[in-house]
Amino acid sequence: MSTARQQLEAQRAEAERLRQRVAELEAQAATEPTPVSEKEGPGQVLEQLESLVQTKDQEIQTLKSQTGGTREAPDTVEYEEIQQKVQDLETRNVELEHQLRVTEHSLEEARAEREQARAEVGRAAQLLDVRLFELSELREGLARLAEGAP
User: Fold this and answer.
1) SS3 at position 34
2) Which residues neighbour 15 within 8 Å (Cβ) at sequence distance 6 or greater?
3) In the chain, what's the furthest Cα-to-Cα distance?
4) Which of these, 52, 58, 50, lies nearest to 12 by C-alpha position?
5) Percent of the chain at pLDDT above 90?
6) What is the DSSP-derived secondary structure letter of residue 1?
7) What is the pLDDT of residues 25-51, one digit of tens each?
8) How does pLDDT run across 77-124, given as a tens digit for each residue?
9) Which of 4, 39, 82, 148 is 20 to 30 A away from residue 122, measured at CA?
C-alpha cells in the first residue's frame, strides 16, 4: 500500500512540475511579441496541456482520497483498480511531457524563423538604402549634365 502512496506522491510532484513549466512557458510567451498565427497555435496547446495537468492532478487527489480513506487492507480488485489508474496516470504523464517538449521545440523553431526573417529584412533595407543613394547620385549627375548641355 505504501508503494501506491509513493507512486501517487511522485505523480502529484510531477504534475506540479509540469504545471510550473507550463506557467513558465506562458509567462515567457507573454513577454515576447508574437504574430497572431503563433499566438493561436502554441498558446492553445499550452492551455490544453495545462488543463490536462489539472485533470491529472484531480485524478491523483481522487486516488489519494481513495487510498487514504481505506486504512484496512483493500480488497484485491480495488487495489488493482488503483494500481491501473496509477499506471494510466504515469503513461499520460509521459505523453504530456512529450507534448510539452514538442511544443517547446516548435516554439523555439518559430522564434528562430522570426529572427532569421528580421535579419533578412534588415539586409534588404540596407541594400535598398545603398540603391537609393546611388539613384540619388545618378539623378544629381544627370541634372548637372542637363544644365551644362546647350
Assistant:
1) coil
2) 53, 56, 57, 60, 93
3) 115
4) 58
5) 28
6) -
7) 777 767 765 554 444 566 777 778 878
8) 888 888 898 899 889 888 999 999 999 999 999 999 999 999 999 999
9) 39
Length of the chain: 150
And the C-alpha cell for 145? 549634365
The radius of gyration of the chain from alpha carbons, rounded to an integer in Å, stands at: 30
The answer to whether residues 86 and 11 touch, using CB atoms and an 8 Å cutoff, is yes
CA distance from start to end of the chain: 108
Give φ, ψ of 13 to 5 degrees.
-60, -40
C-alpha cell at 132: 537609393
pTM beyond 0.70, yes or no: no
